[in-house]
Design brief:
Layout: H1 5-16, E1 18-21, E2 26-30, E3 36-40, E4 43-48, H2 69-75, H3 95-111, H4 121-124
Antiparallel strand pairs: 1-2, 2-3, 3-4
Length: about 130
């Protein structure tokens, strides 16, 4: 069987798309561009923009006083947050690692009864 160049590209793109199902209503997919999309009841809900916080393992014990992800966002390193003066930004987290970071965050949120302290308010209040 002969496969055209377009068909080959399509196959590669489909092979790179990842999916993680949290429950019957909540699924995350990574598209061919590496972007993570949250699906609620099978419908695209929102693109995950970026991971908010990168906490080095050695500094994790310093977080005992923080009550919510919103409080952490206010008080911790914002090096992963894009600057308002530019629309594009880059950081060193590979797309597949970022995808699993988003999956992990939403899985923990679900496993803890959708505790709104575990997700940023702009996402938790809309899901």
């Amino acid at each position: 069987m002969i496969v055209s160049e377009e068909e080959e590209k399509e196959e590669k793109a489909q092979a790179q798309v990842q999916e993680f199902r949290i429950n019957e209503y909540l699924t995350l997919r990574q598209d061919e561009d590496g972007k993570t999309i949250i699906y609620v009841a099978g419908k695209p809900f929102r693109n995950c923009k970026y991971l908010l916080i990168n906490i080095p393992v050695g500094e994790a014990t310093n977080l005992n006083e923080i009550e919510s992800i919103d409080e952490a966002a206010e008080n911790l390193d914002k090096s992963l947050e894009p600057l308002k003066s530019r629309k594009q930004f880059k950081y060193t987290i590979p797309p597949e690692v970022e995808f699993w970071g988003h999956c992990s965050n939403l899985q923990v949120w679900y496993e803890n009864g959708y505790n709104t302290r575990l997700l940023h308010a702009n996402l938790a209040s809309r899901c």
